[in-house]
Design goal:
single chain, globular, three-stranded antiparallel sheet
């Protein structure tokens, strides 16, 4: 009975653990903001709980119990709506410009980041498109042309904000779906060359991207400027040693780590729970990915399989890009750690995507040899 209600009891349990760990770490990391002028931990807590957790859980349950036909029919309207919502950030006095980027919509004293919803809508739309066009996927017009239309337009909007990290993780996820749908290698060569040229141009015209690459290659080069975050992150994680300092006992979150409740929350986690805690957290995300892919493999339709695969990879890629950046094995991206980092919009979007996965899990069947979409 519980399996029918949850959709997938194991997957739902993994997500619940990640959310609870995330809330505990957000509370701990937020303590460091009391020592910083201009930061409001109470405001952040309201945003995380009232604009992220509560509506996120509500959205999860609503989406989980939607009839599959309504879910599939909602894909196009949601895709168009999120595109329009994302474009609103460019309207003066409505979009908020911070740290050289225009990614947020200001509503009173709170902000929302439409890109968090857009990347999920793109996954749903592209999965739907691939399911309908699977017999024509090798045709350049329907395969690569569809990729350029469904994925390319949102990518251009995100790059204009600029939001390079979200563009990369969303694009990589869609490329993975395109591969699973049976696209020819010719198309991957074209996408690869386009991506390399595009990234090269962005690095040339946006100095901060070049700075991130240089910092990744030589983190000690500018320890008080571009290399400051990674240096402080490594100090925090190293201070945790094997078992950590203990919950709430992080020192680096006080006046040292930039964004301790945001991008750097994994560093706070590593300092408080040590190597053992980090391994367990990594195991949770690996288990999340594995169970999500199992659900995808048992989905009743091609759309369901591709959607679950896409949403699972989207969250997993984001998690490991964030963790890799904090460990210094990947360049800094600015991506939040799913279910844990500050950001009510990100938490709401992540929980909503879990609702989609559990909905598809609840209606899964073993695929027959001849599947009807």
């Amino acid at each position: 009975m519980l399996e029918k209600v949850a959709g997938d009891r194991l997957f739902a349990s993994i997500v619940a653990i990640l959310v609870l760990v995330g809330l505990a770490m957000f509370a701990s990391a937020s303590l460091g903001l009391f020592a910083r002028a201009g930061d409001s931990p109470l405001h952040m807590a309201i945003d995380q709980i009232c604009l992220g957790l509560i509506p996120g859980v509500l959205g999860l349950f609503i989406i989980r119990f939607l009839p599959p036909k309504i879910l599939s029919r909602a894909v196009m309207p949601v895709y168009v709506a999120t595109l329009l919502l994302t474009l609103l950030v460019f309207i003066p006095h409505l979009g908020r410009h911070t740290n050289g980027a225009t990614r947020w919509i200001q509503i009173g004293s709170f902000t929302i980041q439409p890109a968090e919803f857009l990347k999920i809508a793109v996954i749903l739309m592209f999965a739907s498109y691939l399911a309908r066009m699977r017999s024509k996927i090798r045709d350049l017009r329907y395969g690569l042309g569809g990729f350029a239309g469904v994925v390319g337009i949102p990518c251009l909007i995100l790059i204009a904000q600029p939001n390079t990290s979200t563009t990369l993780v969303m694009g990589a996820t869609c490329v993975a779906l395109y591969f699973l749908a049976g696209a020819p290698w010719r198309d991957f060569a074209i996408i690869g060359v386009t991506a390399v040229v595009g990234l090269g141009l962005l690095v040339m015209i946006r100095p901060y991207l070049l700075g991130r690459v240089i910092t990744f290659i030589d983190p000690a080069r500018s320890p008080l400027s571009s290399g400051y975050q990674i240096q402080q992150s490594l100090i925090a994680i190293g201070s945790g040693k094997v078992a950590g300092r203990g919950y709430g006992q992080s020192v680096q979150k006080f006046n040292y780590l930039p964004e301790p409740a945001g991008d750097s929350i994994f560093a706070v986690f590593g300092e408080e729970f040590g190597f053992i805690g980090c391994v367990l957290l990594l195991f949770l995300f690996v288990l999340f990915a594995a169970r999500g892919l199992i659900i995808a493999g048992e989905a009743a339709t091609t759309f369901g399989a591709l959607t679950v695969t896409g949403l699972t990879l989207l969250i997993t890629f984001s998690a490991f890009l964030n963790i890799g950046a904090m460990l210094g094995v990947l360049p800094l991206t600015g991506l939040p750690l799913p279910f844990m980092s500050q950001g009510g919009t990100a938490l709401l979007a992540a929980l909503s995507s879990i609702g989609v996965i559990l909905n598809i899990a609840a209606h899964r069947t073993k695929k027959p040899a001849q599947e009807a979409n």
